[in-house]
Amino acid sequence: MRLNRHDTWLNFCEKYSVLLTETGLSRTVTHSEYRFRELLETARVEVSCSQDSLAAINQSEWTALYKFVAVFFREFESFVPEDLFPAFRDEVQRRGNRFPNSSSLKFGRA
Asked: pTM for the whole thing?
């Protein structure tokens, strides 16, 4: 049976659930690929009374998020220009990391 995009996203999140939990992101963001992409594009997501922000993530959560995003890019995106997710790109630069891209199959420096 072929899965729809949302079910594929949920399976992906389940596969990397330990890493995703370590990001500290709320379930309202991680349960929806759309909201997760919004976080990477705009640096923040507000849902009801919950707000997640890239700038609010501590260093250990950032390390987990960076690794999760590297896997996300590798498994969900065939081409990841840095301007597709500008907020994430800016946060990567602010924290002194390299932008993970589809050609780097390893997590890179986190």
From this structure: 0.84
